[in-house]
Known about the structure:
Chain A is of the alpha+beta class.
Amino acid sequence: MNTSSTRATKSSGQAGMVWQTGGLRLFAWIRDHRRVSSESLRFVSTRIGTSLLVWLVVGIALALPAGLWLVQVNLAAMSAGWEGRPGLSVYFSPGTEQELLDDAKLTLGTLPGINTLELTTAEEALVEFRADAGLGGSLDDALTALSENPLPASIRARFDRGLDAPSLDRLIASAQGLDGVVEVVVEKTWLERLNELSNVVSRLGFMLGILFGLGAVLVTASSVRLAIESRLEELQVLKMVGASAGQIRRPFLYFGAMYGFGGGVVAAMLIALTLLVLEGPLQGLLGTYERALNLTGFDPIFLVVLLSVASVLGVLGAMLAARQRLSALEIF
Amino acid sequence: MTQIALQHVTKRFDNGHEALSDVSVGFEEGSMTFLTGHSGAGKSTFLKMLLAAETPTRGQVLVNGVDISSMSARKLPRYRQNLGVVFQDHHLLTQRSIFDNVAIVLRVIGMREREINRRVRAALQTVELLGKESLFPRNLSTGEQQRVGIARAIVNRPKILLADEPTGNLDPDLSRHIMNLFARFNQVGTTVIVASHDIALIEEMGVRILRLEQGRVVSDRGGEREDLSEDRGAGDHSAGDSVGMVE
């Protein structure tokens, strides 16, 4: 052996020390991450066909729960911005005197759970009816020809928020006991239905989130497992030369993160596309309720959360695959 | 000083085959030894024990006094970073360049690229392959591929060099060249253990020869057989001593 190589060999012991001093070890760890991340990016981009397929599957799996979450957020925003509240309408027999109506209004006003009261006399009801119905012609003539107003006087009561069922029962009983009352109708406003729909969507989104999230994890795990199989000999060499379990696993965690992140991007694109397609019909639907379309939630924060969740799910899938396959890895 | 000691090591596989039977043998630090014997004699299993790729069914494998067969999975990588291993079929990575095949060892220990570049070139120069670092294994002859495997084994300047039939596929001249390379590494303090059935070549080298037959050491020439069961000093080391060996 020549002199130079002899010298090189004699200083050999220092190589192992790189891992043994804290500072150097940290730098080595950072260097390894930097190298592995760029190698992984190259691996994913050179197998673009496979990568696109994984991104598409993961993206579709994530788009549905993420889209439902957006729907739920918008339903909640819609109901929060709505001033209507549930209430009841108390109908009086035709010809009930004004004094009796005023007494009834006063009595209802003292009951707990009532927020606002609005008295509509029979005459006011007729005027509103004519205005709302846009009557004309023969029906208008028929109403005019009647000897007396067919519409009853009524009191519309709006409840306090969060009124519970027993309190509601007590209110109904009290209203039914008033003089001249022929019917008490408890209203379920469309707002309540909206809230209930929002709850359904929220729970559906949660369940689908779990199921489709699991699907995304399994898809990533399967793809990472294939990547592990294709590099098995390299992993055996790595183990032989002293790579730690973390080092052997590291490239695949990056694959998982990249597959997940790409899937998140696809999910965001699918949601944006869906919103674009639905914008027109939604505007038309809300127009019938005299509401303007003001979609919220699809913002930078949503995108950051979506991409982060997607990346984490990808890493989880990779960990699952690596745990299964690498724990039994043998050196040749 | 005894660096490696096998104490009453038996290895029985799940199928009942006993690859090693009550083997007790020691290796001095900086020594060179040939393991010989017919196919199936237990040579590869012997080396795998030292690589901690196999664990003994009975007995202990001590390196610097530490039983590596019971070493935790967390400590094993650092132990292996101080071994150089050469296989008959090279196990080179076909998709990686010669440079990357050798550099993989140094990247595992987190060395800087500049130092990696220097060390890899030095290792390739030692095996006379400098200038071919950008080629791929498929571009090299079998002998050259074996030398890449050797460069990979020595690039981290290991304390122990293990070789399993490193000249199995090579012609006599190339085999002699490879063996001389091992002898050169041994001269600078590396403990070298080579499994080979090339008796003629082994005899030329004039070093210790351990002959295995059916998992037993049947002869030990050129080196002193030790009764390792009485080597109390080996067992007195704490687990932390393995770090000393690494350095």
